[in-house]
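Sequence only, no structure available. Ideas?
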Amino acid sequence: MQDENLTTWLPRLAMHGGPRFLQIADALQAAVVDGSLKPGDRLPPQRQLATQLAVDLTTITRAYDEARRRNLLEGRGARGTYVAAPKVELTSILDLSMNTPPPPDGVDFDDLLKQGLSQVLMRADPELLMTYHLAGGSDSDRKAGARWLQPMFGDLDPRQLVVCPGAQAAIAASILALTQPGDVILAEPTTYPGLRAAAAQFGRHLVAVAADKHGMVPEMLEQACRLHQPGLVFLNPTLQNPTAVTMPARRRQELAGIVQRCNVRIVEDDPYWLLADAPPPPIASFAPEQVYYISTLSKCLTPGLRVAFVLIRDAQERERFLAALRSFALMVAPLTAALATQWILDGSADGLMDGIRNEARLRHRMARDILAGRYSGAGDGLHVWLELPAYWNSSQLARAADSEGIAVTPAEAFATGGGSVNAIRISLGSIKDRGRLRAGLQRLSQLLARRPESFSTAVV
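Reply:
I predicted one. Tokens follow.
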């Protein structure tokens, strides 16, 4: 495209139409979609376009950067900027299997990331961001952790917190700190697969304790504690992964009382508390000395931060946990920890989380409308636990879905033993585009309505 043809796609910048750089990027995208701009067309130099639109050069630079992020443009050095050829999709898989936060509408994540890193680099010594740190986090990181956990516990002493490189590391360190090889770990019949993996790797035995619609059954927990003398009890009480059950406050109190009487520790993995609608207080608030409480940023903000906060009230147990953590993970990456701290303390984390929470609820409404009578979600969180009609079993349904380009997680992936529910977990956040999510849910709904056929794998 020659510079003199500028007016064929230029937008009319609206005063209240949102950030101007996004208006320009949206206009570029619309022009590519309708064919006004074609692959190989040359765009005008940024200064020329800034003059044409009566905006500053920074606005055009940000617009071009956003268009490149959307794979609309490509730079060719001194020759200029051109409309990019469309990327070839090598796979059409619709991933409903990975529990990640959905991209929030109206939040410019790229800009948030750039601004956060800019603030970190401006305020911190770069050398300190690239060297070894003691495990457990800096004073600033622990203060940020106390701020993050304030909705659950109110004011906390930051010294009671440990900063970990993700919840999986925190779970592994808890197992090493609280148990010995051969010990029993109690969990619900369906639970987080990362617990299963860590227990197997460390030579611990996972034993299922019966659960009902409110979570682990207190009488069965007490019986299992006396029978097995477990090293710890693992619970995920809020929007449980995978069942999406939120344990009511009374049940939490009952379980807390049992572990106090039996002198057993609970590892409370609570990644979804901040996404839930009016969740009860954590179990750790009912038995502060008995519970290791884990809260990760991966499910509320973004997995790439790899930061989790662990609340351990007892100083000696905290040191034991830190020693276990140091055996396989010396520290959180200082740069990502500093970014997490910056976002939490300047309020960016709250804004991002609000956007993710709203987007997740919108996606739950979509799932409820499409899956109709099969939907049994809570209306919040990142996933739905879908019980299947009798003519499907979960592994069979997962294979059938895969053959139609849809990835879901069968119940077997979460089973702790003694059989599993005939269900699948559907994750609503991993598909960025709502239109593609809708298409995946509709295709899945159609598959569920059909009776299974014979599925075979080609051999080549």
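The longest strand covers residues 291-296.
Hope that gets you unstuck.
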